[in-house]
């Protein structure tokens, strides 16, 4: 037993002594929040796991960056504090670069200072991972995603080009999950996987990313699903959703159900419920305001949906979750968010 414990201690010490990695996440006005939340949680859980078992500091230094610095507003009107790209200094030689997706990506792709910084940062980065529409920003600068196998795994030669061209959030999250797993021994990797399970299991929408990554989904339906996500906070009709997919209403309804496995209305409801769940955890906003910001309408309607899908009230759901620590990406100034009034 003692030898086993000693071996586990050695494995943990070996992991933590590896060089610290910088996780740099590029944001812009109109970025999509849920995917970025998931990616940051992955690295926070990895830090919590190794720190708790070794007593050492964080292995992944997570930074939120933007071309202007300061407050950036997501597509769901959540304000996020960022550091200016040109002022940011990496703390290690291993840079893991993620580029957010969202409706603001097209405009960000023409942002001169951001594009110049990305062109300089790209060759310095071990991993370059676009999230959904983030690929548009890379493409506009003649760049692509990459995963440097040799740097992530010393002793293994090679540089792997970006393999997943589906441009889904699921592919970016898979990449984020893979990075800590490659640096953990087998036993700690199991602990890491279990550490992620509770928060993903408790969200009503945990399978949506997998649905969106299915190879049988057509481009039009994938685009329409993304459009529903980005516009979930405002009134949406089937006519508008079909128009976004450039399809007739009848054909859109039929193909959406066949390819995703649920109707557009059910899909939209789940997206709104997931957004509400995240805001219940990550903010101190009143339930009624969260419901309105997420397109549900009222706190009473949100309570009914939570009761139906999770058998819990909004208040109980909020208090059942562990509050994020100071390094959480949602340790933002929520009083400032209130002044935005974008969805009020």
Q: Can you give a write-up of this model?
A:
This protein is an alpha/beta fold and 344 residues long. The chain has two domains: 2-202, Rossmann fold (3-Layer(aba) Sandwich), CATH 3.40.50.880; 208-324, Orthogonal Bundle (Arc Repressor Mutant, subunit A), CATH 1.10.10.60. The chain is built from 17 helices and eight strands. The protein has helices at residues 2-16, 33-54, 105-108, 112-121, 134-140, 149-152, 169-183, 186-202, 208-212, 219-230, 238-244, 249-260, 264-282, 287-293, 299-310, 314-319, 334-338, and strands at 21-26, 60-66, 70-73, 79-84, 94-99, 127-130, 146-147, 160-161. It has an eight-stranded mixed β-sheet with strand order 3-4-2-1-5-6-7-8, sandwiched between helices. Helix 2 (33-54) runs parallel beside helix 7 (169-183), helix 2 crosses helix 8 and helix 13 (264-282) packs across helix 14 (287-293). It is globular, with a radius of gyration of 20 Å. The termini are far apart.
């Amino acid at each position: 037993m003692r030898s086993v414990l000693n071996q586990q201690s050695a494995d943990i010490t070996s992991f933590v002594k590896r060089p610290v990695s910088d996780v740099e996440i590029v944001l812009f006005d109109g970025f999509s929040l849920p995917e970025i939340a998931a990616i940051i949680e992955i690295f926070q859980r990895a830090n919590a796991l190794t720190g708790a078992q070794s007593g050492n500091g964080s292995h992944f230094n997570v930074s939120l960056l933007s071309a202007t610095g300061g407050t950036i507003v997501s597509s769901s009107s959540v304000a996020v504090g960022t550091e200016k790209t040109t002022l940011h200094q990496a703390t290690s030689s291993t840079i893991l670069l993620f580029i957010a997706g969202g409706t603001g990506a097209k405009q960000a792709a023409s942002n001169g200072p951001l594009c110049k910084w990305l062109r300089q940062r790209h060759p310095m980065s071990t991993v370059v991972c676009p999230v959904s529409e983030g690929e548009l920003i890379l493409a506009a600068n003649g760049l692509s995603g990459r995963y440097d196998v040799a740097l992530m795994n010393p002793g293994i030669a090679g540089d792997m080009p970006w393999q997943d061209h589906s441009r889904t959030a699921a592919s970016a999250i898979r990449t984020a999950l893979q990075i800590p797993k490659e640096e953990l021994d087998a036993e700690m990797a199991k602990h890491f996987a279990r550490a992620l399970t509770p928060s993903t299991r408790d969200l009503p929408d945990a399978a949506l990313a997998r649905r969106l990554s299915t190879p049988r989904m057509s481009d039009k339906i994938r685009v329409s699903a993304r459009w529903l996500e980005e516009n979930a906070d405002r009134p949406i009709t089937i006519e508008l959703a079909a128009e976004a997919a450039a399809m007739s209403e009848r054909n859109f309804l039929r193909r959406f159900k066949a390819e995703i496995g649920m109707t557009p209305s059910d899909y939209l409801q789940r997206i709104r419920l997931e957004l509400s769940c995240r805001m219940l955890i990550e903010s101190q906003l009143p339930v009624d305001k969260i419901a309105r910001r997420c397109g549900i309408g009222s706190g009473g309607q949100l309570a009914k949906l939570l009761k139906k899908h999770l058998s819990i009230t909004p208040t109980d759901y909020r208090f059942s979750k562990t509050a994020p620590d100071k390094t959480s990406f949602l340790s933002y100034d929520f009083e400032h968010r209130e002044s935005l009034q974008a969805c009020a």
